[in-house]
Design a protein that fits this description.
- The structure is a homodimer.
- By secondary structure, chain A is mostly helical.
- The first copy, chain A, has two domains: 3-84, Arc Repressor Mutant, subunit A (Orthogonal Bundle); 97-185.
- Helices cover 64% and strands 6% of the residues of chain A.
- The first copy, chain A, contains seven helices and two strands; from the N terminus they run H-H-H-E-E-H-H-H-H.
- In chain A, helix 1 (3-13) packs across helix 4 and helix 2 (18-28) packs across helix 3 (37-50).
- Chain A binds a DNA duplex through helix 3.
Chain lengths: 186, 186
DNA sequence: TGGGTCATGTAACCTGTTACATGATTAG
DNA sequence: CTAATCATGTAACAGGTTACATGACCCA
């Protein structure tokens, strides 16, 4: 699994600094991958050691210097190979803390669990709103849909998935709340 | 975070060995948590050090001895506290290798990507079939729905979620394939 | 004057994964 | 005869998280 290859992919669109990458990642793969800045810097370092990246420092006087990374040909090869490796992610719903808690929620009162679901719904609504609004503006750093017509379709696919996912969460949570309220009434 | 509490939860239903826990986990929380046996044993050890569990060895002659774990009161307290901690899992679609690959799939040919989606669909269908069949039999180790009426509703909630999730994956993948075929035709 | 942005990182830690090892019994 | 089941683990590693540190500039 790997942020690693996500970074390679983004850098293949455009040379960037770690700081830029954090923002680019949030704006592009952020719907399904939450990247930590500290990890980004670590990965960049590691990949430079591997020879997958090279970097140049841009000196600035009024702001901190910027270290700009570029993918080498061996880095791009590694990326392409990763893309071809068998995609069988075992179904990718294989670690959900929230579901774990729900599973054991019989320990709590019905009323309390309704509140938990309502909180969950709020979070989903926020996520959905973020995804909808993001859609209107284009991707940053020169990665526009016009710029990358072949890629844009796949960007939409992942976007659609994320949206559909959070909508599913909302309807599911509504059903759960309905069932719990029914129990309260009886 | 954290198989640990899942194990505590299951042990609160019934005393068990690590081996039993692996099977119980697969049968109960397996829809949304893939637990490794090696990690189970490590966690059991660790929790015994913490004083959250105690264990007794059951000697057997014809088979390996069994180490049976029970939750202590401090273990149960830790479990309850975890349940109450704020549930805000940031949305739990925050790490998907599959989506990462799809996002960057513009590098491949349309035909190849159609095959990738078809493989994905097959995996989802298998998962769905597993979930449907599991439903018919009851949970193992005395954890029946009649036995735990308060819990059973929440078990169903997580079950419903997993099923709805894989169904969503299927319809999404179908839409993607349709879009790709349309592109092939034009 | 306080908080946000720009920009880089380190260190310790936690959690989960992979690969391996052992060895008897039982069912096909 | 072979594979699965029972049953327990260890060791090394990979990947991700949290907390912290630095410091200037800009805007309200």
């Amino acid at each position: 699994m790997s942020l690693r290859f996500g970074l390679l992919g983004l850098l293949s669109y455009q040379d960037m600094t770690g700081y830029d990458l954090k923002k680019a990642a949030d704006a592009t793969i952020g719907g399904f991958w939450d990247a930590q800045a500290s990890q980004i810097y670590r990965e960049l370092n590691y990949m430079e050691d591997l020879g997958w990246l090279t970097s140049v420092i841009e000196f600035q006087t009024d702001r901190p210097n910027r270290r700009i990374y570029s993918v080498t040909s061996s880095g791009h090869q590694a990326f392409l190979q990763w893309l071809l490796e068998n995609h069988t992610d075992k179904g990718h719903l294989n670690k959900s803390v929230f579901m774990m808690k729900i599973f054991f929620s019989g320990e709590h009162s019905t009323a309390e669990n309704i509140r938990v679901f309502q909180q969950f719904k709020k979070n989903c609504e926020i996520k959905l709103a973020e995804l909808e609004s993001k859609n209107k503006q284009d991707f940053p750093f020169g990665m526009t849909r016009d710029n990358h017509p072949d890629q844009a379709l796949y960007w939409e696919f992942t976007d659609n998935f994320a949206k559909a996912y959070y909508k599913l969460c909302l309807t599911w949570a509504n059903d759960c709340v309905a069932a719990l309220e029914k129990r309260l009434a009886s």
